[in-house]
Every structure is written in structure tokens, then in C-alpha cells.
Amino acid sequence: MLKLNTMEEKLNKIKTDYFLNINQAKTLKELDELFLALFGKNGVITLLPKEFGKLPMEELQKIGPLFNQTKHELDNAIENRRQAVREESYAKLTTEKYDLGTAEIKPRHGHLHPTTQFIQETVDLFEKLGFQQFDAPQIDTDEYNFGLLNIPEGHPARDLWDTLYIDPQKTGYSPGELLLRTHTSNAQVRIMRDFTPPIRMMSIGRCYRYENLDARHEHTFEQFELVYIDKGVSMTNLQYLSEYFLQNTVGKDIKVRLRPKYYPFVEPGVGIDGLCIFCHGQGCKVCGGTGWLEVAGAGMIHPTVLKNGGINPEIYSGIAWGPGVGRIMMLKYGFDDIRELLKGDLKFLEKF
Ligand code: FA5
Fold first, then answer.
1. Residue 98, Cβ density class (10 Å: 0-12 exposed, 13-18 middle, ≥19 buried)
2. Residue 211 lies in a domain
3. Per the domain annotation, does 103 fall within a domain?
4. More reliable by pLDDT, 312 or 170
5. Residue among 122, 206, 221, 328 to mutate when testing ligand 1 (max atoms within 8 A of CB)
6. Same domain for 129 and 191?
């Protein structure tokens, strides 16, 4: 028959051994291990009551409360020590001093895509002149992309843009009604309808064309639309904006020319060219042998378009300007194929 004093000794031994270990524990992990060693499935406290059956009844009545008290004390001791460990590590965190001067600073890999960086620079430039950003949809209707811009159905000027139409069976629109915008000029009439002059707005984003691809033509590319409408706006403002933009992005030495170009939504219309930096005007495959690289189309907004936007052309005049982001980047960074921008070639992208 098991003796009461033997069971008491056992309990006391567990208590002294574990109290010591609990008070010496330095981490929460050590305390978790001690908790499991006592109260886990095979823990000493969990298993001990199995031996109580060997005790006579009157001794069992004495050992029962003793056991419960020990169990309670050990449980409390672990919880108190846990709290102390937490407080110690918090105090260490708030008082410990790190010497950042000797810390190893690892180089950062990756950066924003050069097109995104260029767009941010350009937005900053025009915000300084009071232009605000405007969003227009990339999937748009024929009406905003062409009709309201003075290019009605069947107009020969539609051939200037190789358009990608959206399958009518998938959308419920009529054939030819829904398309991927060919230019950011789809923002023009929306801007006029949403704001009253004086208007200074810029709209930037992707355009899509069913193009013959070459060094200066992509099927997917970014354009930048500027719309400036007020009393007395003239081609002089356009000339100034072109120089301001190209000199501040490409460089002070860039040579720019404006030449007459037909667009149905402006009158007069111009093409804006930068001298080809690859052949210095001699003519090469990048500029198509002309010596100049066209970077933008622009002009005075056509009175019909102003009227479509609800603006009286007798009172107000405006300029619209549509530079291609990729073409200007070619001049700024000196790469000779616009298709590099979408290839995702890390060797090319790491140069920026
Ligand atoms: C237009 O898209 C007119 N919306 C521009 C405009 C705006 C005219 C406002 C008048 C008033 P165009 O198709 O010429 O015009 O394109 C303008 C510029 O976008 C080009 O000068 C070129 O820089 C760029 N661009 C055009 N097509 C491509 C292409 N396939 N790949 C890359 N850039 C292109």
C-alpha cells in the first residue's frame, strides 16, 4: 500500500524542481515546454492521480487538496513567469540601442517600369502649369473615339487609325460600336462636357492599334492628351507647351519642328517631330528615313468638337495635344526600338 508521506514527497519534489525551472526560464518557448511536461497528455501532474487509487480513503482525502493546491501553484507560476518574460523583452526592445551606422544595407532590387517613371515625371511637369489628371476608358464607344471628334462613320480619316473592334456577340453592342481606344483623344469631349472653361486637363494611358509593327510602332502604347481651353488660346501656346515638355524631358538641346498635319478634330493640325538622335537628321530605319521622329499630333480644337463638348467656339478656343510616351522615351534614353518597352527583358529594363 502506497504511503501518504511518499505521495507528499513526490508532490513536493515536483514542486521544487519545476518551480526552479520555471523561474529560470528565459523564453516563452521554454515555458510552453514546461507547461506540457506538467499538464500535457503525458505530463507528470496529469498522470499522478492515476497512482491515487492505491491510497487508503482517509489518506486520499488529505492528498486530494494538496494535489489541487500544487497544481494551481505551478499553473500560476508559469503564467506569472510568462508575463515577466514578455515585460523583459518589451523593455529590451524599447531601451536597446541599434547602431544603424554599422548595419548592413542591402541593395534594393527592382524599380518602377521606365514608362511609369516617365509618366510620373511628365504629370509632375504639367501639374506645375496647372493641368489636372482626367481618366477616360480604354474600352470605349465609336462615338467618343471617332464620332464626336468630327470623324463620322464612313469618313476616310478613319483609315488613319487601325482600329481593334470588340466582338459584338460577347458584349451585346452593335457591330463596330465598341472598340479599344486608338488614342487618348477619346477624353476630349468628355473633359469638355464635365468642366467649364478655363480648362487645363491631361489624360494619360494605353491605346491600342492593329498596327504593322516596327521600331517606332507598337500595337499597345501610351499616349498623353493635353486639353487647354480658354479665351484667346492660340498656336503660340501650343508651340510653348511643346518646347516646355520636350526640353524638360528629353533635354535642352532637343531640336523640335512643327509641320502641318491633318487630323479631323483640329484646325489647323500639326505633327510635332524631334530630330532623330540615331542618325542626326540623316535618315535611318528608326525614323523611317526622314531624319525626324514624330512624337505628337496636335492643333487648335475644331469648332465642331468644341460644340459637341457644349463649348461656344465664338467665345472660347482651345488646343489639344497628343504625344506618344514611348517615342519620346526613345529620344530621351536613346534606345532604338519602341518594342523594347513591352518585352519585359530585364537586361534592357535594368538600365533605367
Ligand atoms: C493621334 O493619335 C491623335 N489623337 C493625336 C492628336 C491629339 C492630334 C490631339 C491632334 C490633337 P497619331 O496617330 O499621329 O495621332 O499619334 C500621335 C502620337 O502617338 C504619334 O506621334 C506617336 O508618338 C504616338 N503613336 C502613334 N501610333 C503609335 C504606335 N503604333 N506605337 C507607338 N506610338 C504611337
1. exposed
2. yes
3. no
4. 312
5. 221
6. yes
Instruction: Looking at the structure, tell me whether residues 73 and 204 fall in a common domain.
Output: no
- Let me know whether 157 and 16 are in one domain: no
Alpha carbon distance 255, 247 (integer Å): 9
Give me the CATH number covering residue 195: 3.30.930.10
Please return the burial class of 53, using the count of CB atoms within 10 Å of its CB with bins 0-12, 13-18 and 19+: exposed
Q: Check whether residue 67 and residue 200 sit in a common domain.
A: no
| Ligand 1 mutation pick, 149, 261, 327, max ligand atoms within 8 A of CB | 327
Number of domains forming the structure of the chain:
2
Q: Are residues 56 and 201 in the same domain?
A: no
Range of the domain at 197: 114-349
Could you tell me the three cell numbers for 34? Answer: 514546461
* Average pLDDT taken over every residue of the chain: 92
Strand partners, 266: 301
Using DSSP's 3-state secondary structure scheme, residue 336 falls into: coil
CA distance 107 to 307: 55
Predicted structure pTM score: 0.72
Q: How far is the CA of 298 from the centre of ligand 1 (A)?
A: 9
Same domain, 25 and 89: yes
Cell numbers linked to 250: 528629353
Instruction: Quote the CA–CA distance of 36 and 28 in Å, as a whole number.
Output: 12
Q: Are 175 and 203 in contact (CB under 8 A)?
A: no
Mean pLDDT for the stretch of residues 151-167:
87
Q: What are phi and psi of 29, to 5 degrees?
A: -65, -45
* 94's grid cell: 524599447
Confidence at 10, pLDDT banded by 50, 70, 90: confident
